[in-house]
Amino acid sequence: MKPYTVIAAIAILIIGSASAGRFATAATLQQDPPGKAPYDANCKKCHGAIGVAPKSMKTKFPKIATFNAEFFEHRSADSVVTILTKGKGQDMKSFKDKLSHAEMVAVAAYIRAFGKPK
Ligand code: HEC
Questions:
Q1: Is 68 found in the same domain as 97?
Q2: Is 90 found in the same domain as 110?
Q3: Contact in structure between 94 and 87 (CB atoms under 8 Å)
Q4: Do 50 and 93 share a domain, yes or no?
Q5: 59/105 same-domain check
Q6: C or N terminus of the chain, fewer CB within 10 Å?
């Protein structure tokens, strides 16, 4: 191998691994919050993608909560976990058989973010 071929090969290796590192970092930053998957799977159909229930659900469940700043003024993350554990009323079921405590905590943090100004 000619010397410059070796240098070029080394340079390609260095540049390659450096940019792979950069892509890995970007992918990590764009990862979904841990509460998103359990929320989308268990809550979204009633509470909507960003915590505002679709009209059909509001008609079906007039008492359904909207997860906005006003809602969270009166509720802590713990109180959401309690609701998820025990349920509330007829239609807001307990999720204690479907979600682990850690998932409930993650979902509580996730829906709280809907109430934060962007
Ligand atoms: C079948 C539809 C349905 C699903 C699925 C559902 N909810 Fe609800 N949720 C409701 C209804 C209806 C209410 C209003 C209950 C009431 O006030 O009587 C409610 C109320 C709530 C409240 C407010 C309780 C309070 O403090 O007043 C929270 C928080 C909540 N839901 C979170 C969730 C989360 C998180 C999930 C997913 C793990 C979920 N819900 C899944 C229908 C649903």
A1: yes
A2: yes
A3: yes
A4: yes
A5: yes
A6: C
Nearest-CA residue for ligand 1 atom 2 is 46
55/23 same-domain check: no
Total domain count for the chain?
2
C-beta of 71 in contact with ligand 1 (< 6 A): no
Which 8-state DSSP code applies to residue 42? H
Token pair 């764009």 in the structure block, residue: 30
**Could you give the CA distance from residue 12 to residue 107 in angstroms, rounded to a whole number?**
44
Longest dimension (CA), the chain: 78
Per-residue confidence band for 9, with pLDDT thresholds at 50, 70 and 90: low
Can you give the pTM of this predicted structure? 0.81
Structure-token match 């850690």, residue found: 102
Tokens standing for 8? Answer: 């070029």
